[in-house]
């Protein structure tokens, strides 16, 4: 498959750019933060109206079935304006789990609401501070055909606004085993579940969850309990590539704003952009961003094509873009100098969101190591 | 496309019949290649036959016009030829700066007489060419070159030195940048001249590198007479021709960024050399550096693919050659540094060819980021021409 966008995809990207720059420019993030609001339901409805919430869901269940390249394009544009929404968590990561291992009843009942944006899902996986998908100690004990969950989760992205959690808990084995994991659907008002939310530096609400004998009926078990790993791994690959897409948007926007600033800012009687040291750093970053574009597109296509290289390409993309985004936002603040350090200026928001998005679904270190492991070393 | 498929069939049949067995073995080094030229000694009869047959079809220069002896193939047909040759591992019949660098420039800038005179000989591999550009005092600042070509009425008198002239000691003719106006601004006083290396006054010295022997030479000209009809293009307009040639050269060098097919990946080499435990390299530091490198290498390969695909789809931005040259050469240096670390003591061996291969490759790779427009120059170009930064 050629590494180019077809006409449909280009149109999607262009319309996404127009919509998000109008509905949620960076100033919208600032307003959200200053108001203390948890999120923007208004923006969410706008996204649903655009069809974004159903982009990667089959037409059979109310989606657009456009594919993951489309999902990536939309998320990348969101990255450019730092638009905050549960799109990644719900419409892509959790929707992929529902479609992959959901029963027909579950798919028919739940997916259309995910596709329409009516219901928001998020994945509750982390039990430590850095991604460790098989490091699950939380238990799901069988009780006839139901399960009883005990344990806790932390750093649950969109945990403050999700209606339903897809909880990863262990039905067998020990922490560290890939076997013995199950997926359980738990509504936020379930008995025995307590939710604590906090804002992170990027103004996104994350949650800690505590499960005290939370009961999960058979109908709310997603897929075969104890055998969730393949579907979970794929969902995490999707999460990693889409977070790479978001970071690509963040990095490109940071770079473009910085380049513009360098050309305008004058010191010592000349544009700061005429200093060779800065020119070389800008040129280097330009090259890295070009490489990132290639990685993200390839990894997205690999998901659409169900390529056997999907996981390795996902880790390649996330590692490369996370590293480049870190460079981009750091260069951005540094090159904006004093003004870049002020809260009043927007560039700091890019740095904050870059750090958070870099960690979601595995950071640079996690994915570089996984890339090596999948490469046989 | 029926015609293309027919062409493929015909090509396959012709190659099968006409490509000798010993020419179906991949080239491992410069020494395996046929460079042609007046003094060329063919490795064997098959090498000579292969050149003769391909040249007769014009397939040493597949896309050049038939009227000068070229193959006259379209881009698609040339691609088919390449694929069919690759299919039987047929090597290129002729390696030639005449074909890769000078020819395209002649086709664009030379007079009809010059094309008729020089191009057929290039295609047949009868004349071997070298490039006279850089001088001891004109490297990155090539336009400041000083080799003088004085107008003597019916000829030019050429005096000066060129450096980094690859294979000058084995070449028949040279295409040379000379200064024909010392009063004009530097870019506007340069001309493009062709002359015979056998001319009285021309001498060459081999340049040895830190990596050992090299094809590079210093070429010295002392009052060399060059007929006026050997001037290509207009007097003092040679810089345009030089620039045209340099872009092609740049992309050639950037190809080093990609691993040659069939080589082990770094990770695999390391696993073998260093050892693994539970399937993981026992040295975590080297493992992390290898992963970093391979991620960049893969991203670079995908970028070359994407640039090509975008150009085909009419979406190209034409910004690629500096990026490819810069990134590819830096990757090649990084690859060799890692191979030195992986190889440990074995990698340091000097002496006879086989043993010294790794250390030579490592040292030679340092030149990749210097030649063909240094990395620093590429960054300047990207900053100014692509990013529009001032100065």
Task: Reconstruct the topology from this structure.
The complex is a heterodimer of chains A (377) and B (391).
Chain A: H1 7-23, H2 26-35, H3 41-50, H4 68-81, H5 87-101, H6 104-116, E1 121-124, E2 139-143, E3 146-157, E4 164-170, E5 181-187, E6 193-199, E7 205-216, E8 221-226, H7 229-264, E9 266-267, E10 270-271, H8 276-304, H9 310-340, H10 347-359, H11 364-374
Chain B: H1 2-18, H2 45-56, H3 75-87, H4 97-109, H5 112-124, E1 129-132, E2 148-151, E3 155-166, E4 173-179, E5 190-196, E6 202-206, E7 216-227, E8 231-232, H6 238-254, H7 266-274, E9 276-277, E10 280-281, H8 284-312, H9 320-343, H10 353-365, H11 375-386
Parallel strand pairs in B: 1-4
Antiparallel strand pairs in B: 2-3, 3-7, 4-5, 5-8, 6-7, 9-10
Helix pairs in contact in B: 1-3, 4-5, 4-6, 6-9, 7-9, 8-9, 9-10, 9-11
Overall description:
- The complex is a heterodimer of chains A (377) and B (391).
- Chain A is an alpha+beta fold and 377 residues long.
- Chain A has 3 domains: 113 residues, Acyl-CoA dehydrogenase/oxidase, N-terminal domain (Butyryl-Coa Dehydrogenase, subunit A, domain 1), CATH 1.10.540.10; 106 residues, Butyryl-CoA Dehydrogenase, subunit A, domain 2, CATH 2.40.110.10; 145 residues, Butyryl-CoA Dehydrogenase, subunit A, domain 3 (Up-down Bundle).
- In chain A, the strands form 3 sheets. Chain A has a 4-stranded mixed sheet with strand order 1-4-5-8, covered by helices on one side. In chain A, strands 2-3-7-6 form a 4-stranded antiparallel sheet, with no helix packed on it. In chain A, strands 9-10 form a two-stranded antiparallel sheet.
- In chain A, strand 9 and strand 10 form a beta hairpin.
- Chain B has 391 residues and is α+β, with helices and mostly antiparallel strands.
- Chain B has 3 domains: 102 residues, Butyryl-Coa Dehydrogenase, subunit A, domain 1 (Orthogonal Bundle); 110 residues, Butyryl-CoA Dehydrogenase, subunit A, domain 2 (Beta Barrel), CATH 2.40.110; 129 residues, Butyryl-CoA Dehydrogenase, subunit A, domain 3, CATH 1.20.140.10.
- Helices cover 44% and strands 15% of the residues of chain B.
- Chain B has 11 helices and 10 strands.
- In chain B, the strands form 3 sheets. Chain B has a 4-stranded mixed sheet. Chain B has a 4-stranded antiparallel sheet with strand order 2-3-7-6, with no helix packed on it.
- In chain B, a hairpin with a 3-residue loop joins strand 2 and strand 3.
- In chain B, helix 6 crosses helix 9 and helix 8 packs antiparallel against helix 9.
- Chain B is globular.
- The N and C termini of chain B lie far apart (50 Å).
- The model of chain B has no long low-confidence stretch (mean pLDDT 93).
- Chains A and B meet through helix 7, strand 10, helix 8, helix 9 and helix 11 of A and helix 7, strand 10, helix 8, helix 9 and helix 11 of B.
């Amino acid at each position: 498959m050629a590494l180019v966008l077809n006409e449909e995809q280009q149109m999607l990207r262009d319309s996404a750019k127009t919509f998000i720059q109008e509905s949620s420019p960076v100033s919208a993030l600032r307003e959200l933060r200053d108001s203390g609001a948890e999120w923007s339901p208004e923006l969410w409805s706008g996204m649903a109206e655009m069809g974004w919430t159903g982009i990667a869901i089959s037409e059979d269940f109310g989606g657009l079935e456009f594919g993951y390249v489309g999902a990536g394009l939309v998320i990348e544009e969101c990255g450019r304006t730092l638009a905050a929404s549960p799109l990644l968590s719900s419409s892509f990561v959790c929707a992929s789990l529902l479609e992959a291992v959901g029963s027909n009843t579950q798919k028919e009942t739940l997916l259309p609401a995910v596709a329409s944006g009516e219901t928001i899902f998020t994945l509750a996986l982390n039990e430590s501070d850095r991604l460790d998908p098989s490091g699950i100690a939380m238990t799901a004990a069988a009780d006839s055909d139901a399960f009883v969950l005990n344990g806790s989760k932390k750093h649950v992205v969109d945990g403050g606004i999700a209606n339903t959690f897809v909880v990863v808990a262990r039905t067998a084995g020990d922490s560290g085993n890939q076997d013995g994991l199950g997926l359980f659907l738990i509504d936020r008002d379930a008995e025995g579940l307590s939710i604590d939310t906090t804002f992170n530096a990027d103004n996104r609400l994350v949650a800690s969850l505590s499960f005290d004998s939370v009961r999960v009926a058979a109908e709310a078990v997603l897929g075969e309990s104890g055998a969730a790993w393949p579907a979970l791994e794929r969902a995490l690959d999707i999460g990693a590539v889409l977070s790479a897409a978001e970071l690509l948007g963040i990095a490109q926007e940071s770079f473009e704003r910085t380049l513009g600033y360098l050309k305008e800012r004058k010191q010592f009687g000349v544009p700061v952009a005429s200093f060779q040291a800065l020119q070389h750093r800008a040129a280097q970053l330009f090259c890295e961003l070009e490489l990132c574009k290639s990685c993200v597109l390839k990894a997205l296509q690999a998901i659409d094509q169900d390529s056997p290289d999907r996981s390795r390409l996902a880790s390649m993309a996330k590692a490369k873009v996370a590293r480049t985004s870190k460079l981009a936002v750091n260069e951005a603040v540094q090159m904006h100098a004093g003004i870049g350090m002020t809260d009043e200026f927007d560039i700091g928001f890019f740095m904050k969101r870059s750090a958070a998005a870099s960690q979601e679904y595995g950071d640079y270190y996690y994915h570089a190591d996984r890339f090596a492991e999948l490469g046989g070393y | 496309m029926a015609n293309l498929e027919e062409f493929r069939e015909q090509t396959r049949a012709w190659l099968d019949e006409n490509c000798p067995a010993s020419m179906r073995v991949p080239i491992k080094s410069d020494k395996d290649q046929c460079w042609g030229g007046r003094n060329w000694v063919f490795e064997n009869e098959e090498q000579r036959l292969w050149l003769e047959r391909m040249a007769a079809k014009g397939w040493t220069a597949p896309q050049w016009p038939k009227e000068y002896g070229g193959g006259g193939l379209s881009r698609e047909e040339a691609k088919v030829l390449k694929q069919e040759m690759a299919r039987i591992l047929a090597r290129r019949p002729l390696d030639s700066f005449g074909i890769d660098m000078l020819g395209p420039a002649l086709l664009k800038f030379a007079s009809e007489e010059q094309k008729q005179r020089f191009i057929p000989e290039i295609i047949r591999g009868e004349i071997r060419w070298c490039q006279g550009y850089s001088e001891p005092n004109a490297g990155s600042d090539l336009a400041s070159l000083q080799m003088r070509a004085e107008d003597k009425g019916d000829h030019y008198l050429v005096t000066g030195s060129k450096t980094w002239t690859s294979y000058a000691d084995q070449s028949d003719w040279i295409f040379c940048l000379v200064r024909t106006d010392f009063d004009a601004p530097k870019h506007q006083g340069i001309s493009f001249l062709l002359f015979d290396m056998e001319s009285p006054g021309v001498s060459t010295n081999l340049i040895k590198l830190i990596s050992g022997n090299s094809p590079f030479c210093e070429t010295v000209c002392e009052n060399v007479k060059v007929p006026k009809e050997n001037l290509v293009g207009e007097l003092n307009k040679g810089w345009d021709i030089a620039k045209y040639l340099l872009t092609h050269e740049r992309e050639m060098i950037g190809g080093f960024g990609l691993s040659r097919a069939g080589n082990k990946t770094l990770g695999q080499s390391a696993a073998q050399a260093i050892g693994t435990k539970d399937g993981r390299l026992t040295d975590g530091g080297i493992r992390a550096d290898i992963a970093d490198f391979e991620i960049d290498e893969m991203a670079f390969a995908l970028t070359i693919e994407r640039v090509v695909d975008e150009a085909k789809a009419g979406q190209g931005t034409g910004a690629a050659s500096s990026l490819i040259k810069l990134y590819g050469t830096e990757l090649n240096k990084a690859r060799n540094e890692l191979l030195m670390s992986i190889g440990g003591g074995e990698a340091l061996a000097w002496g006879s060819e086989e043993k010294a291969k790794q250390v030579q490759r490592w040292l030679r790779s340092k030149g990749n980021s210097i030649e063909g427009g240094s990395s620093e120059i590429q960054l300047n170009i990207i900053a100014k021409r692509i990013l529009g930064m001032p100065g």
